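## retry 2 of 3
previous attempt timed out at serialization; input unchanged, resubmitting
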Amino acid sequence: PSSLVVECYARMRDFFALPLPVKHCYLHTQYDRETGGYVPLLEEVAYQRNTAALVESFDTCRDLPASHPALRAPVGGGGAAATGVGPVDWPLEAPGLKTALGGFYRRADDVARDLFVAFARACCLEEDEEEEEDE
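## retry succeeded, writing output
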């Protein structure tokens, strides 16, 4: 695996090695805004009916500052603020976690952008049309 993936695993191991009371300080938002956090053992539903997952996790999302426009409901109604994005409460006791996972998200964005361009070209879009979409 790439050094970035190795770093992500190492930083997650740091987090999961923390004492349970510390991990509980970063509990998942329970779907209020879907901004991630610690999910204790047996809290997630498994992919089998009536079965709890035998896993603990630290969910993440697109880490945006609370002031980001996507997190505000549209003026005049007609919609809601985005979910699945927002400020993540990164654990101070696991330094480097935010940097590692943020780097992973950025790299995933790069791959997604490359795939989008490849699909656009396969659909006969000209390069200048792609650039207009980026602006």
